[in-house]
Amino acid sequence: MIIRSMAKIQSKSIEPVDIFEDYGFIAAVLLIPVISFVIYSNTFSSPFQFDDYLYVISYNKNHPLSSFWPPTGSRYFTYLTFALNYSFGGLGTFGYHLVNVLIHSLNGIGVYLLVRETSKTPLLEGSGIPAGSIALLSSVIFTAHPVQTEAITYVTQRFASLATLFYIFSLLAFIRWRRSAEGAPKRILFYAAALVLAVIAQKTKEITFTLPFMMLFFELVFFKGGSIGKRVLRLVPFLLTLLIIPLTMYGLDAFLWGGEGAIGDEVRNLQLRDLHNISRHDYLITQFRVVVTYLRLLVLPVNQNLDYDYPMFRTFFDPEVVASFVFLLLFFSLGSYLIWRALKKNGGYGALAGFGIIWFFVTISIESSIIPIKDIIFEHRLYLPSPGMAIAFSSFALFLAGLFKARFGLKASSSAVTIALLLVTAAPLGAASYVRNKVWVNEIRLFEDIVRKSPKKERVRYNLAWVYQVRGKKEKAIEQYKESIKLEPNKDKSHYNAALIYQSMNDNVNAIAHFKEAVRISPKNAVAYYNMAASYVEMGDRPAAIECYKEAIRINPGYEDAQYNIGWMYKEAGDLKKAEAHFLAASALNPANADARYNLGLIYRKLGMRDRAIDEFAAVLRIDPAYAAAETELNKIKSRPR
């Protein structure tokens, strides 16, 4: 009954005055940035987290701004913004967070404009819906929603927010081009802008692959006139942009530019690995359940989590999968039905609500379909799809408000209803976002929050242990490493890091036990053998220490410190020939190793090789003129008669 009424209610006199029809854009431009900056005001000093160390810190340290040409890689433009941040502000996090919040503000304004421009298309023009109110409510809900915090506060996920920016504004330029009169001077500029932004979007993140399909959807649903073939032909340049991501994924863009690698090759390599290592079938059926979880988060954003412990489903006939599939099918059918009914009966509310639902399914399809990704669920993947649900909710809410007013003869304007809806929806959402952002204040608080919500996921235990270890909370770190080992006994990193902590606490028995486990799991871990040797030295077990150093050198003959230390131990044990061999090896690896040359001088002095001892002590002083012990030894030798 409600659906049937959606096409009719707009024909009635819903409101005497709607200020948002005339001043909605001004309200959005003033309100959206304020909301964004207030909600995220407690994040500007938040540290880098999680993958920021790989994609922001490490990448920028190893890739100067001058290396960002040619424009290769599927995420080139996001990496470029990180590089610009790094160039202007180094690794101070304020600038990175500021840019993320600015992008979010622009996206919020973009959502407003998207609804307004859509309301002016032939399908909706003259429908009588309060488009200004729907647009403002949609944009504010999108901006204030706590599910966006991961895409904004987590610096790395600028990938999602920046891609969304180009996606929305490319579509807006396309709509303006399509709405412009034939021959209008600005028409070609809108077309060019839409195409350029589409190309940039495809080089920002892979989720923008669906943009040409969304343009095609707009062309066929919201616009009229001319043959379908002719209309689609004009979209060919946009459809050709679909080649950009596949070509980039397989490195062909770098090849065309004559380069050996592309910007962000690390991400591409991980993506290709997932494509080959994860079952498409299992990932797809799991995503039915995941998408329902996404919808739940949009409706009821509680128990948000950076790293969900989510099961991979193996059969479609699992009750949870079947139920999720049926629900999603019905929900998608609702959106399709609303669009179909709008085409038949020119229903404004239904068209916008249906458009929002279709937007959600289209934009989420890249990360929630047959393209497998190692991490099954992440909240930032909702950033691009969420405008659709905000538009659908706002359309439905204002439709119900109009129906209610018509039923009871109320005279409240749509703008008054919108203000009320903002207070009861956007205000609590904004408050929830502000509170959610508090967990991002430091790494300990963030990972403690994750462990509370995903206590049986090994990765989060390990990450919390590592954070505790870095912050010097040794006992807490040991506790979390133990939990990590319980969940994954054969994780060498957990054993190795626990061993280092025990070693720093002078508990060499436990340190050695964990070092042994680390090298059992990873036999080629030369560093573990090296550190285990240090614990044996502390315990006075020199033979065991020597065996560990030997193993470290066998694995890595170029291990300078291991060569030096075993040489020192042989020297102390009186085995000067073996000591000489290892000190020579250390000196060959690093000719500036003054300590190795000094010990060689001592050995040659003891062996009565006066000239060689003089040569070594003299070499030490050339390396380090302030090496007093070498100068003393040299003077002693020279003062003695031959």
Protein model, in words:
- The protein is mainly α.
- It folds into three domains: 2-438, no CATH class; 456-556, Tetratricopeptide repeat domain (Serine Threonine Protein Phosphatase 5, Tetratricopeptide repeat); 581-642, Tetratricopeptide repeat domain (Serine Threonine Protein Phosphatase 5, Tetratricopeptide repeat, Alpha Horseshoe).
- It has helices at residues 2-5, 19-39, 52-62, 76-89, 93-119, 131-144, 149-153, 158-179, 187-202, 211-221, 228-233, 236-240, 244-249, 252-256, 265-277, 280-299, 319-345, 348-364, 386-408, 414-437, 443-453, 458-470, 474-487, 492-504, 508-521, 526-538, 542-555, 560-573, 576-589, 594-606, 610-623, 628-639.
- Helix 8 (158-179) runs parallel beside helix 10, helix 25 (508-521) runs antiparallel to helix 26 (526-538) and helix 30 packs parallel to helix 32 (628-639).
- It starts with a helix and ends with a helix.
- 48% of the residues are buried.
- Residues 1-16 have low confidence and may be disordered.
In short:
The chain is mostly helical and 642 residues long. Helices cover 70% and strands 0% of the residues.
Structural classification: mainly alpha
Total DSSP helices: 32
Separation of the first and last Cα atoms: 114 Å
Oligomeric composition of the shown chains: single chain
Radius of gyration: 32 Å
Estimate the strand proportion. under 5%
Overall form: elongated
Total strand count, please?
A: 0
Give the helix level as a range of percent.
Answer: over 70%
Average pLDDT number: 91
Structurally, how many domains make up the residues? 3
Main beta sheet: none
Low-confidence stretches: 1-16
